[in-house]
Amino acid sequence: MAADALCRLTLRAAADGLRAGQFTSVDLTQALLDRIQALDARVGAYLTVTADRALAQAQAADQRRAAGQDGPLLGLPLAIKDVLTTQGVPTTCASRMLEGFVPPYDATAVARLNAAGAVMLGKTNMDEFAMGSSNEHSAVKPVRNPWNLAKAPGGSSGGSAAAVAADECLAALGSDTGGSVRQPAALCGCVGLKPTYGRISRYGLIAFASSLDQIGVLTKDVPDAALLLHVLAGRDPRDSTSANVPVPDYPAGLDRGVDGLRVGVAPQYFGAGLHPDVERCVRQAIDALQTAGAVQRPVSLPHTKYALPVYYVIAPSEASANLARYNGVKYGRSDPQATDVDEMMSRVRAQGFGSEVKRRIMLGTYALSSGYYDAYYLKAQQVRTLIKNDFETAFQDVDIIAAPTAPAPAFDLGAKLDDPVAMYRSDVMTLPASLAGLPCLSIPCGFVDDLPVGLQLIAPPFAERRLLQAARAYERARGTLAAPVRQVDVP
Ligand code: GLN
Q1: 448 in helix, strand or coil?
Q2: Which of 51, 111, 265, 434 is deepest in the core (most CB within 10 A)?
């Protein structure tokens, strides 16, 4: 099989090829490493490429296979967002603060991939500490959207989404606090799944906002997302917030269809600010689900309009607490010239954090400070409960909710850099489900101005199976989208 064709495979197709002996994991891994070498200077998806290690893992996978062993991901090359710790491999969160940090342990999600036989190609670029919606807040370099290199890939998992979209890996891990898997998936045209809060262990996921953070997957199609979720999900004694809820066989029964499935459509997701052509694509997608047997039902989520302000109080508050640990002592950046602790801390933090991270720390510290806590953090938590209750009420009448993932297709690099609120607004569609802790995903549903558009599906807690079945039904009804030429393929 030609190298480019290998790079385009889904996880399942690659696994079939490996099992049938059509190619080896070393062939596949080498093809992807060559493609990264050829393209990534233009895309910027990777912060670290672990070529030698990847080839060694691939070789080991091939040997295991030759010895008659198999595994759900045996020999399949993936990319890992640089927010997840990887033993012996630099992990920086795209921040100068963690420059030089080499973790002594693997995140549980990474350990599970390893145990399933996966090959790690490298660590992907992101917004610093996962704060951002365009990947431009990376302290290292921006990521470019493979469809149009002048556009942002979304964020904060922009590197993972771009790597999948540019066929620089078969699939990738990301993290989603307020939309960081779904929004870049929408803007880059891949599938992005954020499971229920607690579904995947966060041990080794560098913390941003602990009541929201969740690991997610970026893949080329829905069955690949189901396959990865099945490997990753489950209770982990090392993360007390990981849920002790049985893990169903997500890949099984994926093609069950949507006969009779009640799909909720909320007017709050279709209001002002939504690009009319994005709305058209999303409504067509919902109609396609209906043609496949689902029924559309109107629902109302009246507190959705508060999701943006609520999120931008809660997430920075939790971030300000989580980021207090970067004091120049334990990991990453230090300052040997500092003469006392105060000087050390202020110098390291002044030099180590970028401006968006500093903005969040200041916002959060303010919102948590004495006298303001009740007015901001507590109030935001109360409104968060109302947002959650809206979903609970809606899910009494419907099985799933459909909405756009992002209000518009990918925007120009630089367009929102000087306007934080405009940047924050690109998460307006993904934040409500995050605040409610719900499983949700984005799936490509069309192109506008030659750029991908995402349909977002949201399900009740731990209904990932239903979510994936509905997404798969749509994917089959949709068929292969008529796609323009990716700019990354034009020499
Ligand atoms: N873009 C949002 C933010 O900047 C969400 C980020 C995320 O999900 N990690 O906070």
Answers
A1: strand
A2: 434
Closest Cα to atom 4 of ligand 1: 132
- Rounded Cα distance between 378 and 338, Å, is 37
Band the pLDDT of 491: cuts 50, 70, 90: confident
Share of the chain above pLDDT 90, in %: 98
Residues having CB closer than 6 A to ligand 1 are: 130-133, 155-156, 176-180, 208, 315, 427
Residue 191 · residue 454 · CB < 8 Å: no
420 phi/psi in degrees, rounded to 5: -55, -40
For tokens 């903005």, the residue is 359
* DSSP per-residue string spanning 322-338: HGGG-SSSSSS---TT-
Q: Which domains does the chain have, with CATH numbers?
A: 3-261+467-489 (3.90.1300.10), 302-382 (no CATH)
| CA 436 vs CA 19, 362, 421, 439: distances in Å | 41, 25, 22, 9
d(CA 424, CA 443): 21
Total H helices, total E strands in the chain: 16, 11
What is the CA(127)–ligand 1 centre distance, in A?
9
Q: What is the position in ligand 1's atom list of the atom closest to the CA of 315?
A: 10
pLDDT of residue 330: 85
Alpha-carbon distance values, 83 to 107, 360, 371 (Å): 10, 17, 33
Closest atom of ligand 1 to 427 CA is: 1
| CA–CA separation, 177 and 458 (whole Å) | 15
Question: Strands across the sheet with 77-81, in order?
Answer: 46-49, 119-124, 77-81, 171-176, 214-219, 191-194, 440-448, 451-458, 400-404, 262-265, 295-298
Which class for 347: exposed (0-12), middle (13-18), buried (19 or more C-beta within 10 A)?
A: middle
Q: Which amino acid, one-letter code, is at 278?
A: V
- Residue 150: how many CB atoms within 10 A of its CB? 13
Helix (H, G, I), strand (E, B) or coil at 385: helix
119-128, 159-168, 337-346: the lowest-pLDDT one: 337-346
pLDDT in tens, 14-61: 999 999 999 999 999 999 999 999 999 999 999 999 999 999 999 999
* pTM of the model as a whole: 0.98
For residue range 121-165, what is the model confidence (pLDDT) as tens digits? 999 999 999 999 999 999 999 999 999 999 999 999 999 999 999
Active site residues: 81, 156, 180
3-class DSSP assignment, residue 441: strand
E-assigned strand segments in 278-414: 295-298, 400-404
Cα angle value 47/49/54 (rounded, 5°): 150
Atom of ligand 1 nearest to the CA of 212: 8
